[in-house]
Amino acid sequence: MTTTRRYTLTTSCPDRSGIIAAVSGFIAQRKGWIVEASYHTDLETQRFFMRQEILADSLPFDLTGFHAQFSGLADEFDMDWRISDSARKKHIVILVSKQDHCLNDLLHRWRSGELQVDIPCVISNHEDLRGFVEWHGIPFHYIAMPNNNEQAKAAAFEKIARLFEQHQGDTLVLARFMQIMPPYLCQRYLGRIINIHHSFLPSFVGAKPYHQAYQRGVKLIGATCHYVTEDLDAGPIIEQDTVRIDHGDSVDDMVRYGRDIEKTVLARGLRYHVEDRVLVCGNKTIVFR
Amino acid sequence: MTTTRRYTLTTSCPDRSGIIAAVSGFIAQRKGWIVEASYHTDLETQRFFMRQEILADSLPFDLTGFHAQFSGLADEFDMDWRISDSARKKHIVILVSKQDHCLNDLLHRWRSGELQVDIPCVISNHEDLRGFVEWHGIPFHYIAMPNNNEQAKAAAFEKIARLFEQHQGDTLVLARFMQIMPPYLCQRYLGRIINIHHSFLPSFVGAKPYHQAYQRGVKLIGATCHYVTEDLDAGPIIEQDTVRIDHGDSVDDMVRYGRDIEKTVLARGLRYHVEDRVLVCGNKTIVFR
Amino acid sequence: MTTTRRYTLTTSCPDRSGIIAAVSGFIAQRKGWIVEASYHTDLETQRFFMRQEILADSLPFDLTGFHAQFSGLADEFDMDWRISDSARKKHIVILVSKQDHCLNDLLHRWRSGELQVDIPCVISNHEDLRGFVEWHGIPFHYIAMPNNNEQAKAAAFEKIARLFEQHQGDTLVLARFMQIMPPYLCQRYLGRIINIHHSFLPSFVGAKPYHQAYQRGVKLIGATCHYVTEDLDAGPIIEQDTVRIDHGDSVDDMVRYGRDIEKTVLARGLRYHVEDRVLVCGNKTIVFR
Amino acid sequence: MTTTRRYTLTTSCPDRSGIIAAVSGFIAQRKGWIVEASYHTDLETQRFFMRQEILADSLPFDLTGFHAQFSGLADEFDMDWRISDSARKKHIVILVSKQDHCLNDLLHRWRSGELQVDIPCVISNHEDLRGFVEWHGIPFHYIAMPNNNEQAKAAAFEKIARLFEQHQGDTLVLARFMQIMPPYLCQRYLGRIINIHHSFLPSFVGAKPYHQAYQRGVKLIGATCHYVTEDLDAGPIIEQDTVRIDHGDSVDDMVRYGRDIEKTVLARGLRYHVEDRVLVCGNKTIVFR
What we know:
Four copies of one chain form a homotetramer. Chain A is of the alpha/beta class. The first copy, chain A, has two domains: about 5-85, ACT domain (Alpha-Beta Plaits), CATH 3.30.70.260; about 90-285, Rossmann fold. The first copy, chain A, has eight helices and 14 strands. The first copy, chain A, has helices at about 20-30, 65-75, 100-110, 130-135, 150-165, 185-190, 210-215, 250-275, and strands at about 5-15, 35-40, 45-55, 80-85, 90-95, 115-120, 120-125, 140, 170-175, 195, 220-225, 235-245, 280, 285. In chain A, helix 4 (about 130-135) links the parallel strand 7 and strand 8. The two termini of chain A are about 15 Å apart. The interface between A and B is medium-sized, with 32 and 32 residues.
């Protein structure tokens, strides 16, 4: 719901004293106005993580100027850092299959202005959702994913990657896409592919998690939003939630309950991501809410 | 919080039409007053489960009379059944190690009258909690569990079993006991040993689940109350819950949050069990709350 | 997600012994197959409530036959009762204003088959949502609600009532309609108008509940689905939920979080209602989930 | 669970740019190591709030030295500020009546080392809990509170205040004390008296909130931990939570469920308070968790 233009600076570096003072001093000297600031030290790696939102108009330069002036300080502290501008909306490409509850939810948040992104296109291996997507004025691309033809499948993923590049995609969202991304794409877009898995990971990895949950007799089911890596359903977790079920609930009931948390968890995780609130530390995430 | 004496009848049998009519008809003909009634059909096994609470004084006979008159009907429907009397409190033997948050919680519920059971004794492999237990007027038995001596450990479990039998124990509660029950006891007391595991099973089976959760970077942690079987942490689940954590929480913080759900989940699961609300169906439970 | 046709029988009557036996006996004698059964006694009014789902094909007659044969028994126990047929979908007329998160959610559940109802039309006092509604093939009626013209407003409500009657509406859903129903309509459609209020009632009745919540500094906000009565936001509550906020959340953030629980709570409450799971007892509801 | 000694600095002042830079610069210049830092701007009052934990040994002076050197900076920014030392545990005086679930919970957290405070005494208007308190080695004071004798009651509160002063009490905890504090004590100890109210405020202020909740037919009940002010149950809220109930739950069941959230909410709220995580802003709190 940001209305005034902001720069968001995220950094990480080896922990030591004086980091906050140096960075906030740098900003203060240039009359920059910090409106949100978050810090975290990871105890295992002794690494320091920081996120700051600065009013864009309070600084006497643009992002190029920021880069020029900040790099010296960043080098001194051995920082990984990036800065983003709220005036440049991120480009989100959504992949879907037939199930549309997550897509319906994301598109509503987008058209109501809650999710501040550009959606240059939606890609699917089924034609079913074309009408709904196009009603929003968003291009819909159908790309076949023949199940028993590895070569055709590889070509399909090539097409997806090409579309993503053409649209200068920032993030690829697997909104119940039901297809496993090839390892080379997981590597190429590390930290840029977000998946919603319909279980409380690490429980029930892989296919049919609600059936697995039903068999195990759990009393809560869950959903997990995570970055996609080469290891199936094992990437850094961004957000999770659970909902209570009981013995009276069939697999179909669990699927129904699950849809409600899947869409909420994906929407929250994606929002954190596009607002640069998620920093990755090994296989874990720091989420500055 | 039951004040009036009740019989609780729990039955299961192959599903067919007319079961409710037959059982409720049997009770109605004898002027029995049903105050709570729950039903469930398991779709996989096509088995029907039922629980009924009947005001004891509304029936013209006691439990012996009930057995005599009900068995014909039970045989006709091929029922597994049992009936319990709220006037005879169940005997709960509690096993603990050094951590006492679950014990503290259960003993408070017991002394405030919320948990309507008899606790004939508490058994521990450490002396630490003797004073607290004995303050309640409950006998405390110390039984050493030497870690590297399998024979002594086996003898220790024999002693535990003997104490449990001597006190006509109904249920053995592992309130963070931190020891693995030998298979022969799991079999002998099937459906009568309740454990609290400090994770959201099936995630993080075995030792140090909070460390496992920390490593995996989950955003919620949980606790699971389940019946103990020979398969470690794999028995029928009675109750579970989760609590939100974030990147700022250390393993110690997770342990602290975890204690609060462990004690609540164990207390709920144990209450369901002692009120005969839990029926086991394969490796799952039906919990008539 | 019901696939086989079912009759749902709901009854209430003064409590006494033998009710379950009589009703389940009646059904069993006619070879009826009960697939779900729930009971409740309200202790204050000593009234007994019951809900049973019966496989339609297991009974030797249709609803007319059921009425003919069951009325004798119903009279004997002085029952209020009704029976519904899953083959006849309920007619839901939805009223909206400009905010469309609840509408978007309900229409998605409807078009995915999760919400098994007919939606003969959507009515609004704004034109904004016409396109979205008509894309679903559902008629959209714009009815002006001039704010300072009581006479015009009364006429508008007359039109709404007329449309509702013409479409043989069963239930009127106020999906963030933001207008107060006139008392005579609240009375005429008692138990048939469902509202979603954006607070955890009874806190923050009336206008701008998120502003009220912000001023009071609560740490959770909520939503309430309830039947509409003449007393503003005081009718029987069907469903509620809450979500955690903190000091960092502005009113806008609360509005955003709130939308997610509003739509979920309304969807759950409406599902309970259309599946005849809600029985009203005084100003309270019994919800047989 | 803090093991290393820390200073906790909390400040508030009119918002302007450069505050973080000035304070973190002050600390960095003295080689202070900040291990936790939180910031918040209240939009209504345009006031800035800050909390920083600094490793005590990293600074070249003690609290007296800190005061001497920091006051100039504090004056410059017109700060309200205080600094506390984890080596000096806060003194918590607990007031109870007969219900002991909160007391039992707090004393367990205290004796297990989770709650890092000193408890110089427990005061009650009933003798019931003397044995339990004294088993912990904590002095127990019985002070009669005759219900219909205002003068005797006033004298009783005088005694409570005297005991609190004698023990250099920092915080007075009303752990289900069931008595209304006189206004002059609310004023004298503003921000230092913590109450647990057994409802989700602002719903169900005053006596018998579970009965009120039962009458209203809510689907969730709650508990609220708040600072005590002259207005009954209307002080700044520190922490709240809710739990689901349903039509089957009697007032007694609600009381039982309620106890579990009351004790958890009070324990969380009190921990935030003693760790200086709660800053009051008007009638609201900022809780830096």
